Recover the amino acids of this structure.
């Protein structure tokens, strides 16, 4: 349920609404908008008395929200969510490019790529220290040592770090270095992990599960937002279909659908989406044309030697060429690459 209140409602007015809904086991989440104050009511709202609510001071409307997701829906919060990270803003008019290798592999590798990316103006670097691999025999990441290297490059080059959290046991060390915590496709429905990152209040990049519907993705985001953490970025990264020519099927339909369903920023990862390096730029361009708020792209100094996802990784030279084209496209879309 959504309760709209006049913009100048006092905290007592809001409290009165909260007091009305709480005895029914419901919770009111305050969302300040530009036009009004919205109170998103979660829990079982069936027994709430709409007339009582409408009669409370400041209340202008009471709306039943039929969607399963509530707090992430655009109905609850019409304004785009903008996530401030230092001097950078994710969402709104800005397009953000997150680039970097799939994994931290060595000191040399991560310093080399970090320096290259910083020199071409990239502000957010991705790299996994804990890696979710399909095979238990594949490289599992440098783990804590990888996080320490990320901390070093962060200081050295002023890059903001995006890295994956696989296990709640690592939350403190990941939190220490990450500016954005990545929740990978395989953990999209690890609900206790979602609640845990929600409680940190930190920006979270939530990747769509391999077999998750758009609604599943939004409900997973709802787990994080319901911990009062609105700093969530959704990321389309391709889904499993019958098509096996490409690694995944990048569902670009999800971009305009998500943009109208939710106020959260929507990113695309064309690298995992298609899985073939020379086809990544086409899908990156298509993602921006579809209205994405950002991209996450795998870039490796020597893709042939990468310990994970080399085949889908761009060389710095190819990445740079793609970035220039993206800037031109962003202008056509009346947006700006941050
Ligand atoms: C990754 O970003 O390297 C990764 C493992 O992605 P996903 O969770 O989308 O497979
Ligand atoms: Mn990868």
């Amino acid at each position: 349920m959504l309760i709209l209140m006049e913009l100048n409602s006092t905290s007592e007015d809001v409290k009165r609404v909260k007091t009305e809904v709480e005895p029914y086991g419901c919770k009111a989440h305050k969302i300040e908008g530009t036009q009004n104050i919205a109170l998103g009511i979660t829990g079982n709202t069936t027994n709430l008395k709409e007339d009582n609510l409408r009669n409370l001071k400041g209340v202008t409307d009471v709306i039943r929200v039929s969607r399963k997701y509530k707090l992430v829906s655009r109905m609850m919060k019409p304004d785009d969510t903008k996530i401030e990270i230092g001097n950078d803003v994710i969402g709104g008019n800005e397009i953000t490019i997150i680039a970097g290798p799939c994994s931290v592999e060595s000191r040399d590798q991560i310093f080399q790529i970090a320096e290259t990316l910083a020199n071409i103006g990239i502000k957010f670097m991705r790299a996994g220290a804990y890696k979710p691999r399909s095979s238990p025999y594949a490289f599992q990441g440098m783990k804590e040592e990888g996080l320490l290297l990320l901390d070093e490059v962060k200081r050295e080059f002023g890059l903001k770090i995006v890295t994956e959290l696989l296990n709640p046991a690592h939350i403190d060390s990941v939190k220490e270095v990450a500016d954005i915590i990545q929740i990978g496709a395989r953990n999209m429905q690890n609900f206790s992990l979602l609640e845990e990152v929600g409680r940190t209040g930190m920006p979270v990049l939530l990747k769509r599960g391999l077999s998750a519907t758009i609604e599943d993705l939004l409900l997973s985001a709802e787990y994080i937002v319901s911990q009062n953490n609105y700093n969530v970025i959704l990321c389309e990264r391709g889904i499993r279909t019958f098509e096996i020519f490409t690694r995944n099927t990048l569902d670009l339909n999800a971009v305009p659908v998500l943009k109208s369903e939710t106020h959260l920023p929507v990113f695309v990862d064309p690298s995992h989406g298609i899985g073939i390096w020379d086809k990544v730029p086409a899908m990156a361009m298509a993602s921006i044309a579809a209205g994405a708020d950002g991209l996450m792209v795998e870039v490796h100094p020597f893709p042939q030697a990468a310990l994970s996802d080399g085949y889908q990784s761009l060389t710095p030279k190819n990445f740079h060429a793609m970035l220039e084209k993206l800037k031109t496209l962003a202008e056509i879309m009346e947006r700006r690459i941050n």
